[in-house]
Amino acid sequence: MKVSTRGRYAIRVMLDLAEHDQGEYIPLTDIAKRQEISEKYLEAIVALLVKAGLLTALRGKRGGYRLTRTPDQYTLKDILQITEGAFAPVSCLESEVNTCNRVSECKTIKVWTDFQKLVNDYFDGITLQSLMSEDGFLDYCI
């Protein structure tokens, strides 16, 4: 599994919004400058996050973006699933129902399902709040 720049940048946008939350909408230009990411590229990312309900957008002079929940209510899994899709290590695990005609005799299916669960559980255990806290994930570079 490889997380794309879109996934990593989405986390950085969400974290930036959480860290700079003053109850106002934050312009994308401010986020782009702080994160040193192209505003044009961020437009596509925030559009996904707004569509998924993770952000609220406001157009106009005082416009920008805001989180829809508190930082402790966002997990990295929430954010990455929007930008990356399912964390399936093999194609037969991409949907809820495994339609592979070899699943009943597959000797490696348990390896892949266990790995998928491990990744899901790991990212589900990290919140924006935990990334913000001093004793949290200070040394992580996303």
Task: Give the topology.
Blueprint: H1 5-19, H2 28-35, H3 39-51, E1 55-58, E2 64-67, H4 76-84, H5 109-124, H6 128-132
Antiparallel strand pairs: 1-2
Helix pairs in contact: 1-2, 1-3, 1-4
CATH architecture of the domain at 5-86 and 127-132: Orthogonal Bundle
Kindly estimate the percentage of residues that lie in beta strands according to DSSP. 5-15%
The structure class reads mainly alpha
Strand order of the largest sheet: 1-2
How many helical stretches?
6
Which radius of gyration do the C-alpha atoms yield? Answer: 17 Å
State the low-pLDDT regions, or none: none
**Envelope shape:** elongated
Order of helices and strands: HHHEEHHH
CATH superfamily of the domain at 5-86 and 127-132: Winged helix-like DNA-binding domain superfamily/Winged helix DNA-binding domain
Cα(first) to Cα(last) distance is: 15 Å
Question: Can you walk me through this structure?
Answer:
It contains 6 helices and 2 strands. The protein has about 140 residues and is mainly α. The chain has a domain at about 5-85 and about 125-130: Winged helix-like DNA-binding domain superfamily/Winged helix DNA-binding domain (Arc Repressor Mutant, subunit A). The chain has a two-stranded antiparallel sheet. β1 (about 55-60) and β2 form a beta hairpin. The protein is elongated and about 60 Å long. It starts with a helix and ends in a 10-residue tail after the last helix. The mean pLDDT is about 90.
